[in-house]
Amino acid sequence: MKPAIVLDKSFLQGASAAAIQKLASSHRLVISWALFYELLTCDTRGRRGCFSKLPKTENPVELVESIGKLMKIEINIHQPAGKPSSHKENIQFTFNPKLLADDYQMPLDSQEAINEHTNRLQSDIKRFIDIAKSNLELFPNLLSGNDKERAAAYRSAEEKITDKVAMLSFYAQLQSPDTNIPFPPHTLLDESWATYRWLQVQMLFSIDLFVRYSEDILEQLTPSISEKIEHDLIDAEVLTLGCLEGAFATREKKLIQWWHLLCPNGELFQ
Description:
This protein is of the alpha/beta class. Helices cover 56% and strands 7% of the residues. Strands 3-2-1-4-5 form a five-stranded parallel sheet. The longest helix is centred in the middle third of the chain and has 26 residues, at 108-133.
């Protein structure tokens, strides 16, 4: 069986149809449900630009479960959930050609699923902001000093987030919201766990968010900034899935930089 690779939106937008077809000849293309919903809600040009490049075959991509569902598995079994591609949707499908039409209208059940996903993103934004605000305590020098000193503090925070000992020490302090369902012991975790990778990636995105908007982010939460954070959340999930799969396709500079930090031996396509 061909190895799997997780795609992100910037790769679908920026790569040519020929490049994506070539990648499909050597890899199984993996797309998260979160990214799939985002593609469905793009403007016509963006939606057409992405879907038109995918193979015109049955099951052109593998749709995979969210990070949240993989983490639930890990909480229940206290073992790594495995690669995202091992949790692909067991369905037969082809993409509707109408997705490429200017007047495309989503079916009611698809719209309901998107609305549910959007509502979940809104609650995730608040949690994401809470994590970002906690960075003042975890990394007190992020907003201190001149530009050079702040840049050094930012690099130091990135290094700490990619240090296994530091991350497990931080994880060990977390408490499950349900005392009847405790988090897996920190002694079990490593880079193969969705729980571990999601914590790492969320913290990387949160320090970036904190540096951009500082601790007053809630006061600055305009619809435009809220939309940017939504995109960050989707990118964070896709990057995490890529880390777990060991192969990732992106053209976004920030994700490329973090991929090299998190998965220096992983497979990256740009």
